[in-house]
Amino acid sequence: MPRPEQKEIQFTIDGREVRAIEGAMLVDAAKHGDVEIPFFCYEPKLGNPVGACRMCLVEIEGIPKLQTSCSTPVKDGMVVHTQTDRVHAAQNAVVEFLLVNHPLDCPVCDKGGECPLQDITFGWGRGRSRFIEPKRHFVKPLSLSPLVAIDRERCILCYRCVRFSQEVAEDYQLIFAERGAHTYVSTFDGHPYVAPFSGNIIELCPVGALTSKPYRFRARPWDIEGAGGICTLCPSQCNVQFTVRDETVMRVLARENDEVDDGWLCDKGRFAYQSIHVDERIAAPLVRDGGELREVSWERALSVAAGLARHRGRVGALVGGQATNEEGFLLQSLMRQGLESPDIDSRGRASVPLELGRALAAPSLQAAVPDLEFAHTVLVLGCEPLDDAPILDLRIRKGVRRRGVNLAIASARPSALDANAKLSLRYPPGTEAAFLAELAAALAGPPSSGDISALAKLLLEGGEDVVILWGERVAADALPTLLRIAERLGLSGRAGAGLLEVPSGANGRGLREAGVLPGVGPGYAPAPAGRSAAQIAAAAADGRLTALYLFQTDPVRELPDRALWEAALHRAALVVAHASVLTEGIREHAAVVFPAESHAEKEGTVVHPDGRLQRLRGAIGHPNQVRAGWSVLAEISARVGHDQGVLTSPMAWEQLVAAVPFYAGLTLQEIGGRGVRWPDRAQAAQMPAGSAPSAPAPPGGSASSAPVAGAPANGGLRLGSYRPIWASPEVEISPALKFTICRQHVELSPQDAARLGIDHGEAVEVSQLDGSSAAYSGEAGSQARGKLEGTRVHGTAAVRSGVPQGTAFLADGIAQDSANELTEAVVEVRKP
Amino acid sequence: MSYNPGEDVIEVVRGPAPGAAAGAYRAFGETLRGLKTTFARIVEGPTTIQYPEEKTPVYPRFRGRHKLHRFEDTGLEKCVGCSLCAAACPADCIRVVAAENTPVNRVSAGERYAAVYEINLSRCIFCGYCEVACPFDAITMGHDYEMSDYTRSDLIFTKEMLLAEPIERTPLRSEGE
User: Fold this and answer.
1) Count of structural domains, chain B
2) ipTM value of the model?
3) A interface mutation test: which of B78, B80, B82 has the most A CBs within 10 A?
4) pLDDT tens digits along A466-515
5) Domain that holds residue B87
6) Of the candidates A632, A599, A568, which has an alpha carbon nearest to the alpha carbon of residue A281?
7) Which of A14, A182, A470, A656 has the lowest CB atom count within 10 Å?
8) What is the pTM of this model?
């Protein structure tokens, strides 16, 4: 869909001839003439204006009554006055009326000092009130949710929070209750307003009615400093502003960047900053001593880690999504050159060969985030934006609501966006290859009936600009077909169309470009073949790898096959980890733990899933004994005899730019606060071209990957997994987010629940069924079988109508009873 | 080579040398005039203030050491920790960290109270802006000016020190004095 064309017109405001964009609201257009019009309710991010607060009244020649400038589009030749007596009288009256019931408890109010109502009263009010009657009173303060406090006396009924809930997040929870002077904001049923994006209403509120509970009374605007940064808790990489007081992060605000986050934040990004300043965080290097991790000096920890040199050639490394490009680059150099071990991976699930990876990352095929809003059709394939990259969920909702984007969803698990989608298709978990093969056939073949044909029709006929948003959970064998579909739809080289991959790690894309993949060097250059994550686990479990390097990741928590990873970590002689939280795998198995930096302390660059290089800058100093990740890597490198010559983070960046041809010439200054999308630069042509494997898998060729409708034959359920938005160690240790801590919810379809006699909310037990009994014959087989049956995951049944029959979905990435304990594709769910 | 000032030289013109009488006057005239004042004050007696034992009285609006106040009836602190004094302070010597009142632990009358209230008196310039800024008259400037101490850290006055009833050591100047 082409972006709307912008035409300039000329109008007169306060006697000044001003040029503005046609159709812009007067309140925005007035700024071109340096005229400030006060307003409370106007917020373009929330969609159409409502004109609720009446603060923005102006006089327009030819219209007898005063008009609200926030809802009046500017027209050519319009003559507007904002400084007449009528306008002043109206503004004075509006302020006077707004303050009739406002408690004026500014010294106590958290908004004091950064409050639009204070500013506007000071600037446009009369200074005195004629009201002597008692004010209306509400009980205060109340909790609107565990994160948001509401003070109803201060509310001026501007509708911003209600509009956010109804039109942006679309959770439809907030409403205005009662009428007249007794109106107040509340949830419809009086339950707490718990939603993934609830924190945004705090920032939207133009008075102190909605305030943050974690920030309550923490600081005043003149006590604090703002420091721009990037949130690296998920791949959305929202631009944030850290509020810092006394070297402590006090809160996180959105730093609006249309190209990335549109000015919204999820509650994880907004409140998980608390994990920076809690006692649970690792603040000093730890070394295992007599079976227990003890705090030691840096010198001791580094010398233990330097023991990696004795495992030369037998070290495996895993890099988590919070690592910066520089850290990934230094670590891969340490591994490949220093330790002669090419076994390094950042892609936990599926391993993608070099050529295919290049083809998928081709700059001409990449869609940008705003394309989700302006495309004709968006296909969400195998990912749940709400959990994997929450801000993209809001962007897709915006596109559907305001621009009529055709949304199609193809996923195993029901999605939060299903209600907005034209088409929602379900396939059994892990059968993306067969699904995409059918879709490719439908795209190529003649039109026919059926869901997949309907999807093909929508993709072909809905418009040329198609964006496919796909997640890392899509099985690797499906990716060549995905490329063929993209080719069929002509997405390559087309502005406003393309593929957009949501990696599982926040900086997944940047780490791949920095060469943190087996057999892939920096800049997608060929490198000596190495083991992928799953192969590292297997090799470490049987002793072929003797040391492991875990950079800000805990495979026991995050990667499939928990038992194998536990065996691998147990067997490894030396496990070096960088971590900020002692998760299970680190606590039990690491020999050395270096305290990792948080995203408020890091210095470096990350890459957004759409190719935007963004810069992390230290907002606070390193607390306690924490040291920068790059410096620890450089030090270990030097101690194992591979001096990388890195003394500062920018020096690591210089080396990275020199090694990655398509970053050539980029400087940190150029990246700045807004980031640079490298696929848009001329140097993107330096990206080596890739190719999809020439022989695509025959559609539906192998019996195992063919989509099977209904339940598996042996009465079990197919296992699907998902990672909830709250499944992260940072959330677990944030005091304000304790109420979100994930426990296992086993999602079942109503039919399966009825068949198994399980009610919603009941405790259930999930055990494994062997996929093929033939594999477990013989003595070794019966041992394996015993182990299989011994694995039990406990959880609570969640009966969800959208879940397809024959499938159960379990959460992974959580501390206990995680889905990654189960390794078989078929499970049995029963009451314990 | 000697320095040649050129045309910048200004010739000083001196008058003739004075005679004997005029010379004597110039030597002693002013001295005698000063001694006149000295002898005239002798009869008034000494006015030295024996400082540590005897203190200079101050005016009622003298801006001395700060005081924090409580409500007399309820005993709650007047300060709600709004930090406006810190904002107004040109010397940046006030630090306020607020916290929330709970029904169990009610410290001030409002929702919030000052958990930490510190004034660094070694920085304070006694301008009185904090007193002007305070919306609850919780902080006022007292009359005490004896604040010297042996260590700098002892000059950081905490909330408890500021709330405590100061020992009135400073006499007030009476009306018209």
Assistant:
1) 1
2) 0.82
3) B82
4) 999 999 989 899 999 999 999 999 999 898 999 999 999 999 999 999 99
5) 66-163
6) A599
7) A182
8) 0.90
